[in-house]
Amino acid sequence: MLNFLKQVGDYAKETVQAAKYIGEGLSVTFDHMKRRPVTVQYPYEKLIPSERYRGRIHFEFDKCIACEVCVRVCPINLPVVDWTFDKKTKKKTLDHYSIDFGVCIFCGNCVEYCPTNCLSMTEEYELAAYDRHELNYDNVALGRLPYKVTDDPMVTPMRELAYLPKGVMDPHELPAGSRRAGKLPQEILEELEASKPAKAEEASES
Ligand code: SF4
Ligand code: SF4
């Protein structure tokens, strides 16, 4: 009899444990039902990269003075600057320039230190290729401007959570062309310019 009661007790305990585990699992499911959808229907929908996104590098051939600073500051000495010395002008002439994006770590050092600002980081992140050698971009490929997500008629651009206006949690619900949170660099510059006379007045008064 005692043995039977012990078996019933064990069975009841296991049933309670199982119900507890099912409840825990379902609580996670119900919790996710309240959250915003994070699914992006790529490639029909694409997130707009953030402003300081470090994507594929853009290069302006005419601006480059072949100084090779980009090579020296690169942690892996990656950019290949091919130049010849022009004896008449006593200046370097750039022949070819290339960066291998199969090796580049997109640190942005070369862009930061280039004295003529001929390098810049774009928002292009789709660099997949069947052959890794195709990732070695020459100056022609580097000079191509990327197609913006917002300009592509085949794509629905979506904002990241960081760029959603205050209170909006679902990027799918955002009307096209609505104002994003935060200020554009141009707006910050304009504000700084506007505050300059006020600061100058304060300084002259003191
Ligand atoms: S640092 Fe700029 S200007 Fe100098 S070689 Fe590199 S890309 Fe050209
Ligand atoms: S982004 Fe960094 S790793 Fe890539 S070429 Fe420039 S300095 Fe080198």
From TrEMBL:
Membrane-protein topology: Peripheral membrane protein
Gene Ontology annotations for the cellular component aspect, listed alphabetically: plasma membrane-derived thylakoid membrane
Main subcellular location of this protein, as a coarse class: membrane
Gene Ontology MF: a single term: iron ion binding
Subunit structure: NDH-1 is composed of at least 11 different subunits.
Gene: ndhI
Biased composition (Basic and acidic residues): 193-206
Taxonomic superkingdom: Bacteria
InterPro entries: 4Fe4S_Fe-S-bd (IPR017896), 4Fe4S_Fe_S_CS (IPR017900), NADH_quinone_OxRdtase_chainI (IPR010226), NDHI (IPR004497)
Catalysed reactions, as listed in the record: a plastoquinone + NADPH + (n+1) H(+)(in) = a plastoquinol + NADP(+) + n H(+)(out); a plastoquinone + NADH + (n+1) H(+)(in) = a plastoquinol + NAD(+) + n H(+)(out)
Provenance organism: Leptothoe spongobia TAU-MAC 1115
Residue segments, region Disordered: 173-206
The protein's name in its UniProt record: NAD(P)H-quinone oxidoreductase subunit I
Binding site for [4Fe-4S] cluster 2: 74, 104, 107, 110
Transcription found in the keyword field: no
EC class: translocase
Keyword Nuclease: no
Function: NDH-1 shuttles electrons from an unknown electron donor, via FMN and iron-sulfur (Fe-S) centers, to quinones in the respiratory and/or the photosynthetic chain. The immediate electron acceptor for the enzyme in this species is believed to be plastoquinone. Couples the redox reaction to proton translocation, and thus conserves the redox energy in a proton gradient.
Subcellular location(s) of the protein: Cellular thylakoid membrane
Cofactor: how bound: Binds 2 [4Fe-4S] clusters per subunit.
Family membership noted in the UniProt record: Belongs to the complex I 23 kDa subunit family.
Lineage: Bacteria, Bacillati, Cyanobacteriota, Cyanophyceae, Nodosilineales
Needed co-factor(s): [4Fe-4S] cluster
